[in-house]
Design brief:
single chain, Rossmann fold, EC 2.7.7.7, DNA-directed DNA polymerase activity, DNA binding, 2 domains, 3'-5' exonuclease activity, DNA_pol_HolB, Zinc Finger, Delta Prime, domain 3
């Protein structure tokens, strides 16, 4: 289900303000490029603008969402609103050619026509060149929106003929709250929203059993380091490295450890609302009293240094062993 104006305005206030001004001044452009990360509301905003253009009973600059036209656009069966998506891995020339045939027709039910090309960066070269004709000679009362996550893959000739609107990454608290609304537990929602501000990626990660177990193992590693440091290398061999096997998994583990130390630092700065591990608040509060901010920033630097070594293809077992020794003090990476 597409988002409402108010919901999108909360996610993308600058974008919605721009569109509101255009609607109120009757200056809707003939071609837009909506660019930004996945999950930032680009397609929902395009559909919302289509609804407003065809709405039978608009409420000022917003569509009513209830009339026949709004409902048909929502169901994607309005004859004057067309959404083009990749056919397989790409958007092909034939798809654009069919769209061009629609360009030349009068609107079935009104003088307006509206086209959305989702994943516009996946147009073949021939498809993109075919689209140029419409952009160079736009039909009256026609609006096209091209959506992309990879602006650099759009032909410069297309870019130059579109009004570009950039969608910002979603704030941490917005992603977290949306995940909780979807039934994700607060501890997992808080953690994944600290790892990514891409809502769809966060949602996928929150349902990943490997990730849920990774969280437990990193917390256990921290406990071992704190209470039984001499057992840390044994835990590393018997538990940690059995779960974090490849380079990508090891890097994820380092990210989780980094967020743990960041939480301890935040508690010293009274930033409880930013915690990645909110269910550990009481425990971390007690421990943060005995840790200086310089010690915590040093530990964060140690983890970041390990990430750098990992990206330089250092052996992961050796890297993790050195990391634990350095977190215990008195060891330097080689």
């Amino acid at each position: 289900m597409s988002s409402t104006w108010n919901e999108l305005e909360a996610l993308q206030p600058i974008v919605l303000k721009m569109l509101r001004n255009s609607i109120e001044k009757h200056r809707i452009g003939h071609a837009y490029l909506f660019e930004g990360e996945r999950g930032t509301g680009k397609l929902d905003t395009a559909i919302l603008l289509a609804k407003r253009m065809f709405c039978e009973t608009p409420v000022e600059y917003r569509p009513c969402e209830k009339c026949n036209n709004c409902q048909r656009i929502q169901r994607r069966n309005h004859p004057d609103v067309h959404i083009i998506e990749p056919d397989g891995l790409s958007i092909k020339k034939d798809q654009i050619r069919s769209l061009q045939e629609e360009f030349s027709k009068t609107g079935v039910e009104s003088k307006h026509k509206f086209y959305i090309i989702d994943h516009g960066d996946k147009m073949t070269v021939n498809a993109a060149n075919s689209l140029l004709k419409f952009l160079e000679e736009p039909e009256a009362d026609t609006v096209a929106i091209i959506i992309t996550e990879q602006q650099h893959r759009i032909l410069p000739t297309i870019l130059s003929r579109c009004q570009m609107i950039s969608f910002q990454s979603l704030p941490h608290h917005v992603v977290k709250n949306r995940l909780v609304e979807e039934g994700v537990s607060l501890p997992i929602a808080s953690l994944v929203s600290n790892l990514t501000n891409n809502y769809h990626e966060a949602l996928e990660l929150s349902s990943d059993e490997w990730f849920a177990q990774a969280r437990k193992i990193v917390l256990k590693l921290y406990e071992v380091l704190r209470k039984e440091p001499m057992q840390a290398l044994i835990y590393l061999q018997e538990e940690y490295l059995q779960h974090f096997k490849d380079k990508q998994q090891v890097e994820r583990g380092l990210d989780l450890l980094l967020l743990l130390y960041k939480d301890l630092l935040y508690l010293g700065l009274n930033k409880q609302e930013e915690l990645a591990y909110p269910d550990k608040l009481e425990q971390f509060q007690g421990e943060a009293l005995h840790l200086s901010s310089s010690m915590l920033t040093d530990n964060m630097s140690i983890v970041l240094e390990a990430k750098g070594k990992l990206n330089a293809n250092m052996n992961t077992q050796l890297l993790m062993e050195q990391l634990l020794l350095k977190l215990q003090g008195g060891y330097t990476f080689v």
